[in-house]
Amino acid sequence: MFRRRRKASEFSAEIRAHLQLEIERLQEQGLNEEEARAAARRAFGNVAQAQERFYESGRWLWWDHLWQDIRFGLRMLAKSPGSTAVAVLTLALGIGANTVIFSAVYAVLLKPLPFKDYDRLVFIEKKNPPRGWTRNPISPPEILAWRKESGVFEDLAALTGTSCVLTGAWETEEDPCEITSSNLFPLLGTMPIWGRTFSADEDWSEGPRVAILSYGLWQRRFGADESVIGRAIELNGASCTIVGVMPAGFSHLYASPYDSVPEMWLSGIALSPTHAWNDYFGIGRLKAGISLQQAEAQMDQVSIGIERVLPELKGWRAQLMSLRTMVSGDARSALVVLMGAVIFVLLIACANMANLLLARGAGRASEFAVRNALGASQNRIVRQLLTESLVISLAGGALGVLLASLGCKGLVALAPPFLLRSATGLAGGAADLRVLAFTLVTVIASALLFGLVPALQSARPHLMETLKETGRSSVQSPRSRRFRSALVVSEIALAMVLLVGAGLMVRTLAQLSRVNLGFNPANVLTLRVPLSGDRYKQPQARADFWEHVVAAVKALPGVEAASVSRGLPISGWAGQFFTTSDQPNPPAGQVPDANYVVAGPDYFRTMQIPLRRGRSFDEHDAQGTEGVVIVNEELARLHWPGQDPLGKQLRVGPPTAPWLTVVGVAGNVLSQGQDAGFHAEIYIPYQQFPWLMGGPQHLLVRTFATVKPESLVHAVVLEVHRADKSLPTADIATMEQIALEPMAQQRMVMALLVSFAALALVLSALGIYSVLSYSIAQRTREIGVRVALGAERGSVLRLVVGGGVRLALFGIAVGIAAALALTQLMTDMLYGVRATDPVTFSAVAIVLAVTSLLACYIPARRAMKVDPIVALRYE
């Protein structure tokens, strides 16, 4: 009890002494004693009485101390609402940005997949190292052999993508589907919410197929009717029975980001050990203790044996990736870069906060000195200041979570659909408990980052000097000046890294936008019409349908040209092996391949692909006439260098396929995106082979320059439905939209990096400004003396600006060194520009230097206007 009373007495004496010093300071500024006492009471509230009651009550529990510190901290923050609001908003932006990006990182890269032993699930493709091919589909013989002979799998399932046209009593629609082996769902450990999965017999059944619906299709098409199980539906003109409904979000969690999310699963995969068509993928569960490298090595041994039986598979080897890696796709590198960017933004915000707290601590130096002189421990002062920092950080964190909820929705809207496909629920905001835990840790870490060092420095005042300077401007210690300068340098360095990253992405998009696609995407409307049903089983019926539709569309006002094709430039690759008459029997494993385009007359005119030599397809290229083909310049260069390709012959597919005569050479087209380069391509007239690969599905319409292609959508769809109202139309888009799709990820990363870099630039400029402004306030007397002794305004300007510029240049130098190392993480996202691009680094350094100079000039002008008489009187 004695100890408690003694401490209470000491604290009361400390508070009373500090109040008296405050009263005296106010009297020196011209207030009378009554006014000064009232003002001091308002400034400190009833802190003294509250503290006296607290100590006299004998309650010494830690939460009482904490609550008292919080209340005192709130009072102190309320005294400067403007700076407090800016501090809270700055932290909210940093914490909110971190929460948004971490929500995406967690959902895509860290959140456990809801599958049995998901860490042992692998996605199976194949590669051909001698030819430099990767990420290719596999054949049934390879699936069967790896399943039985490799000894690395507990189970291995097969699947292949397809398209299903759903007809019947409802409106016709097309949905992406998968044909899967019966063991896929048990392997993943996911069962339907209604019905059952496929049985092993249904893999080989020659009767009608059975189907399992996705939750979304069940809700949308069938109104969530539980009695849908056992109902017959019509798919692609054939009857099919529904046997199950999968849980919500199931397909998003294993579907490849490079393919459409399946809405339905079909039985009847029927894997044949002699069918070497590469059109399948595999999902397997590795045995416990087997690594990806070990599994690939064992599977490659099996592949060597397969080559002896099927020479066409020579050179192909297994390529495995974890299911998590497959699902995340290209999102990993983008999210890692963005996570680093938002951490940098938060560090810059914390550096600004630390500078603010150092300035406020210097302003409260007399308060801390009196407390220290009257017996208050340094720990007590540090705890009080850290509590104030935590209050600011908690307020910023709370506002940051609210901003993150909006930010998550914005991120989903900004990101391309494939990038965050597996991040189900992200649009709902940062509601996951693990994400909120991350935010809480971020809040606490931020409070320590920006609050600890200022608290330690403020708690160790120069007692005698500070007490002597009471009522006058506090003297900034060299240690404090060095720390504030280090904070500014770090802010500029971090801003430099972010600005360089944003600059590299801007230059990448500029380079991609200037790439010659090989065709003109402007004013071209595309849509897909899948032909299905008994009516179109005959190839000639397909040809007649397209001939009628193209003729009708050409007659529409505003249409310059129209044609059909199977596949579109930019959007995909349909590789086919071929041989030339000059080399009809290439060695096994060295058969050339090319992109295979089934096209109609006027295709090259519609797409404005230049014909370098020969002719285009016309109405004479019909069934029964000599087979013709058009090749691109790349194929001609590779197989007939220095020769005239016209009149040459090639054969697509097996040796039984007919020879085709080259009648034209087209310009090269980027068929796999702006950054994939040119590849060999073969164009086949659909009139001669309307059954090839299902025939053409895409209708292409070029409008005149004065007509927007979107304005013709209704008229074109109407002409399709006039020809057959039961057919669905899908994938309606312009070629300009399709050409932009491969750049969607780069555009998202660029937009976010530019936003973060702009915020970092503003914060770093504020950092320089605040440091110089505080320095001028501390050196007002010195500047006044200099001016009184004859110093010119220019010398004062150089004095202030020179100090700021030195900090900026040092920060830029450190930032350049850091950016040279960190931008290597962005290499996979860059095109046409190196991660060490000197133009970008130079431009960013200039922008940052000019911004820093402006931030220095504003307080320097204020220093130039210091009146020496006023300054000396002030002191």
Structure notes:
The protein is an alpha+beta fold. It contains 26 helices and 22 strands. The strands form 2 sheets. It has a 6-stranded mixed barrel. It has a 6-stranded mixed barrel with strand order 14-15-20-17-19-18. α4 packs across α13. The protein is elongated. 41% of the residues are buried.
Structural features:
disordered N terminus; alpha+beta; 15% strand; 6-stranded mixed β-barrel; elongated; 875 residues; single chain; 26 helices; 6-stranded mixed beta barrel
| Helix proportion | 40-55%
Rg, rounded, reads 36 Å
Shape type? elongated
- How widely separated are the two ends? 46 Å
| Number of β-strand runs | 22
Low-confidence stretches: 1-8, 52-62, 470-475
Total helix count?
A: 26
What topology, given as strand order, has the largest sheet? 3-4-9-6-8-7
How large a portion of the residues is in β-strands, by DSSP E?
5-15%
User: Main sheet, how many strands, which sense, barrel?
Assistant: 6 strands, mixed, barrel
State the secondary-structure class. alpha+beta
Q: How much is the average pLDDT? A: 83
